[in-house]
Amino acid sequence: MGCAKKRINSKVANHVNRNFTVDFTKAVIKAVNQLPPPWKSNKKGRKGHNPKTVTVICILKVGFNQTYDGIEAHNKDSKTLKQHYSILPGHSVIQRGMKKLSITYIRKVMNRVTRFLRRKGMNIAVDSTGFSTHQSSTWYDIRIKRHSCRKDCIKLHINVDIDTGVIHWFTVTKWNRHDSKEFEQLIENLPELGNVLGDKALSSRNNCQLVVDKNGTPYLCFKKNARSNAKGNPAWIISFRAYKHDTKAWLAIYHLRSIIESTFSSIKKRWGSFLHSRKRWMQKKELALKVFSYNVKQVLMVRYAKERKVPLWIPVK
Question: Cα(12)–Cα(313) distance, rounded to whole angstroms?
Answer without folding.
Answer: 9
